[in-house]
């Protein structure tokens, strides 16, 4: 990892820590509801729907019976209501239309905030889809109810608004009658509602289309009743008395809250992240160092091909695979000899016998020597000189391919091996071999030229000398160059 990318990583980490607190605020606006299209935005209970441009919280009248029903429609995404001591504020504005199906209608509709998106069973009738007999008093829910039925003795009347928390018992309620508002007057009119929460007080404004709004306000700490993340939406119910519970438009926005960072988390996460960064740094440093080492090994012999191919009589370049196949993967059985430079293997290239000199990795023979050997021996033509066929440099393998000499090294013929019956060559014969008939002059002059023009080849003189081989008894024999 480079310093700049490490820096970026740290900055990214800092940013992540800063925004650990996903705002989770909501801002949406439905001036009207599009059938089908908007359904995907909501969690809709069985008997609820979006139809005819409105949310129908309970069944529409077209159904055979709409008695004893409850329903819930929640906005799909919850929002963050509070975190630590930070509390969100919101503004929920909607238009409801309640049409009595009986005389009078029932039971009511409510704007709700809840963490539970599941409609409670048996929450019909007086429960308004808010709670049921079991969860009344324990459920985590806050509701602003628009009650059209005095189903409980605690209810003010059959036309009131109330604020409920955890139960259907209203913390505060207000009749709408004196404000000229009749929730289910039987006339087709809209009730406009604004529910404002400023993190301390909950305020509800209710009005008919034309008149002054009724205002109900109470101090309410929603974090006392609700978890941090809640859904917003509507619930409604019918009982023996029925009505159509519609929401015709809805605008909602809530504020961002800066989540109080969990310090424990931070104290664990930051050292962990720093540790991870350092580990990553060390790992990447080691990795890049290893890579550098590897690269420098590879770079030890750069442009080896260029240098070889630039000589006039460039020998053939072999693929490592070919030579591996030819020598049976450098099978020890095919070993012809071993020296300080490495090992010579016998191989079969097509039907042609070859000798492959494999420069050992520990050998001092470097690139220059390798190139010198390939180019000088490769460009020398002497009938008594072992013929260089090609070379290979791949995967750190330096390989030189010679014609195969069945009789072994020239040394044996020059110096013998001290074995009985093995004769050394006589001086006369040695001369004949070296002069090689008519080619001798050409050989020496060419060698002289190479020698003088390439001072770096000086050390090769020795090798070339040993590269000569002799014809003894009609059989070729020779020493592979630089065997000493
Ligand atoms: C909320 O959404 C409305 C459009 O629906 C947009 O005009 C308004 O700028 C948004 N407000 C914020 C605070 O994102
Ligand atoms: C509605 O439920 C009540 C019990 O809560 C029951 O007495 C009544 O018959 C039901 N009404 C209808 C129409 O099913
Ligand atoms: C849904 O409506 C059907 C038919 O009116 C009724 O039987 C059922 O109880 C209702 N479900 C709920 C959860 O209100
Ligand atoms: C709602 O959004 C408006 C601007 O779109 C903004 O002025 C207002 O403060 C927001 N209300 C809340 C409760 O965030
Ligand atoms: C609440 O939202 C409604 C509709 O978006 C807007 O008319 C009203 O001014 C807002 N009230 C406050 C206090 O933000
Ligand atoms: C709704 O209530 C009014 C009186 O308040 C009544 O005249 C009307 O018939 C009721 N509607 C239905 C469908 O029962
Ligand atoms: C959500 O409400 C349903 C129905 O009342 C209930 O079965 C379920 O246990 C509640 N889930 C949570 C997490 O309170
Ligand atoms: C609902 O619960 C509240 C508070 O726990 C209680 O005062 C009220 O009587 C209950 N209502 C019913 C109908 O059980
Ligand atoms: C609401 O309107 C209906 C029909 O006009 C009437 O019967 C009922 O008494 C009214 N309710 C109130 C609380 O004024
Ligand atoms: C909440 O209401 C109380 C009294 O109704 C008032 O004193 C207080 O200033 C209000 N808080 C805010 C934030 O408006
Ligand atoms: C709306 O309310 C006002 C009082 O604020 C009242 O005078 C008026 O008659 C009401 N309009 C309807 C259509 O109910
Ligand atoms: C509903 O009506 C039935 C009779 O049809 C009655 O027995 C029952 O008590 C009523 N339920 C309520 C909650 O009013």
UniProtKB/TrEMBL annotation:
Q: What is its EC number?
A: 2.7.11.1
Report the enzyme's class at the first EC level.
transferase
Where the record annotates domain Protein kinase, the positions are 330-484
Q: Which is a Pfam family this sequence falls into?
A: Lectin_legB
Residues in coiled coil? none
- Annotated keywords: ATP-binding, Cell membrane, Glycoprotein, Kinase, Lectin, Membrane, Nucleotide-binding, Receptor, Serine/threonine-protein kinase, Signal, Transferase, Transmembrane, Transmembrane helix
Write out the transmembrane intervals. 264-287
Q: Which domain of life is it from?
A: Eukaryota
Topology relative to the membrane: Single-pass type I membrane protein
The biological process GO terms on file are: defense response; response to other organism
- Compartments in which it is found: Cell membrane; Membrane
Q: Which residues bind ATP?
A: 357
Q: What is its main location?
A: membrane
**GO molecular-function terms, A-Z:** ATP binding; carbohydrate binding; protein serine/threonine kinase activity
A Gene Ontology CC term for this entry?
A: plasma membrane
Q: Which InterPro entries does the annotation name?
A: ConA-like_dom_sf, Kinase-like_dom_sf, L-type_Lectin-RKs, Lectin_LegA_CS, Lectin_legB_Mn/Ca_BS, Legume_lectin_dom, Prot_kinase_dom, Protein_kinase_ATP_BS
* Signal sequence annotation: 1-25
Family of this protein: In the N-terminal section; belongs to the leguminous lectin family. In the C-terminal section; belongs to the protein kinase superfamily. Ser/Thr protein kinase family.
What is the name listed in the Swiss-Prot or TrEMBL entry for this protein? non-specific serine/threonine protein kinase
Source organism (scientific name): Rubus argutus (Southern blackberry)
Q: What is the lineage of its organism?
A: Eukaryota, Viridiplantae, Streptophyta, Embryophyta, Tracheophyta
């Amino acid at each position: 990892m480079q310093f700049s990318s490490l820096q970026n990583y740290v900055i990214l980490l800092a940013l992540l820590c800063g925004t650990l607190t996903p705002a989770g605020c909501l801002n949406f606006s439905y001036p009207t509801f599009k059938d089908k299209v908007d359904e995907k935005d909501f969690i809709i209970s069985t008997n609820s729907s979006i139809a005819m441009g409105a949310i129908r919280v309970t069944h529409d009248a077209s159904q055979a019976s709409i008695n004893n029903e409850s329903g819930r429609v929640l906005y799909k995404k919850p929002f963050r209501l509070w975190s630590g001591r930070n509390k969100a504020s919101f503004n929920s504005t909607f238009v409801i239309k309640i049409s009595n199906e009986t005389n009078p209608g029932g039971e009511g509709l409510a704007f709700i905030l809840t963490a539970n998106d599941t409609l409670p069973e048996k929450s019909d009738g007086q429960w308004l889809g808010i709670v049921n007999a079991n969860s009344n008093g324990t459920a985590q829910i806050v509701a602003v109810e628009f009650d059209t039925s005095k189903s409980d003795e605690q209810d003010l009347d059959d036309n009131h608004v109330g604020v409920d928390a955890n139960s259907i018992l209203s913390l505060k309620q207000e009749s709408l009658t004196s404000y000229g508002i009749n929730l289910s007057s039987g006339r087709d009119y809209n009730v406009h509602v604004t529910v404002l929460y400023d993190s301390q007080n909950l305020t509800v404004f209710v009005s008919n289309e034309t008149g002054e709004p009724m205002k109900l306000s109470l101090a309410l700490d929603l974090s006392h009743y609700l978890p941090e993340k809640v859904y917003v939406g509507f619930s409604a119910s019918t009982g023996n008395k029925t009505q159509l519970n519609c929401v015709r438009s809805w605008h909602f926005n809530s504020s961002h809250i800066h989540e109080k960072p969990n310090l424990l988390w931070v104290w664990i996460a930051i050292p962990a992240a720093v540790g991870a960064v350092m580990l990553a740094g060390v790992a990447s440093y080691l990795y890049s160092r290893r890579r550098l080492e590897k690269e420098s090994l590879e770079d030890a012999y750069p442009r080896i091909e260029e240098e070889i191919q630039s000589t006039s009589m460039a020998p053939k370049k072999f693929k490592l695979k070919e030579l591996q196949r030819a020598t049976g993967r450098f099978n020890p059985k095919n070993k012809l000899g071993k020296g300080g430079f490495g090992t010579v293997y016998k191989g079969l290239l097509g039907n042609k016998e070859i000798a492959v000199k494999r420069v050992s990795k520990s050998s001092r023979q470097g690139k220059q020597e390798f190139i010198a050997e390939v180019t000088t021996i490769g460009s020398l033509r002497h009938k008594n000189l072992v013929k260089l066929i090609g070379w290979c440099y791949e995967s750190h393998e330096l390989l030189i391919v010679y014609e195969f000499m069945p009789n072994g090294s020239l040394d044996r013929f020059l110096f013998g091996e001290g074995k009985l019956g093995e004769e050394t060559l006589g001086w006369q014969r040695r001369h004949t071999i070296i002069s090689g008939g008519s080619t001798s002059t050409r050989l020496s002059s060419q060698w002289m030229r190479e020698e003088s023009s390439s001072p770096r080849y000086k050390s090769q003189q020795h090798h070339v000398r040993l590269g000569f081989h002799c014809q003894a008894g009609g059989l070729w024999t020779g020493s592979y160059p630089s065997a000493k």
